[in-house]
Amino acid sequence: DTGVSQDPRHKITKRGQNVTFRCDPISEHNRLYWYRQTLGQGPEFLTYFQNEAQLEKSRLLSDRFSAERPKGSFSTLEIQRTEQGDSAMYLCASSALRTYEQYFGPGTRLTVT
Amino acid sequence: AQKITQTQPGMFVQEKEAVTLDCTYDTSDPSYGLFWYKQPSSGEMIFLIYQGSYDQQNATEGRYSLNFQKARKSANLVISASQLGDSAMYFCAMREALDRGGKLIFGQGTELSVKP
After folding, report:
1. Do residue B108 and residue A42 have CB atoms under 8 angstroms apart?
2. To which H or E segment does residue A79 belong?
3. A2 Rama class: left (phi>0) / alpha (psi -120 to 50) / beta
């Protein structure tokens, strides 16, 4: 396994459109995290899964955002009715249950025009 | 509330010299972890070094060392013998206790520029 992968790497969309991002974690990593990073800022936590259960969601995750992790494998993050303020880098990370390190994917850079 | 503070928006260092990037944190949780990540312009987050709150000794990884001062709640990163490839954004992060989810809380970052 070569690490966490994310698809697409870049996405340009028009305001009001829906977008979906995918994250494939390292095999057998129980935990999967989504973070958002806007320009000039550090990443901010959005949500995390332990296996298929979504255990925590940040207040940043408005009703337009939804995340899933069916069968505890890959995860998707969907943004409905995108706004210009959604433009950011969306980072996914995974970790094993009892280890400290989170391995990050390359990120999906979203631009909303 | 848990918080990470990086007070240096930008730093310059001469190639082959050492540099210290500052990080202070705030938490009331006795169990936590502290990380440093490097983010080049490509955007990927590269893990550099980790320090657990119960670790007695400062962490070291090659040219990176973490100066952990628990009483002062600081976790500064020291890069020895800087290289041109070290130019990047550096983020300090604190991890919640694993049994509470283990999410990371990041600072604002420090942009390091290494001069030839």
Report:
1. yes
2. strand A75-79
3. alpha
* Cα-trace Rg, chain A: 13
Q: Is B52 on the interface with A (CB under 8 A)?
A: yes
Q: In angstroms, what CA-CA distances link B83 with A1, B14, B15, B26, B76? A: 30, 9, 5, 31, 19
Contact B36, A42 (CB under 8 A): no
Does the distance separating the beta carbons of A91 and B52 come in below 8 Å?
A: no
Cα–Cα dist B64/B82, whole Å: 10
Residue of B4, B91, B101 lying closest to A48 (CB–CB): B101
B1-42: pLDDT as tens digits: 789 999 999 999 999 999 999 999 999 988 899 999 999 998
Q: Would strands A88-95 and A31-37 be described as parallel, antiparallel, or unpaired?
A: antiparallel
Per residue in B74-98, pLDDT tens?
999 999 999 999 999 999 999 988 7
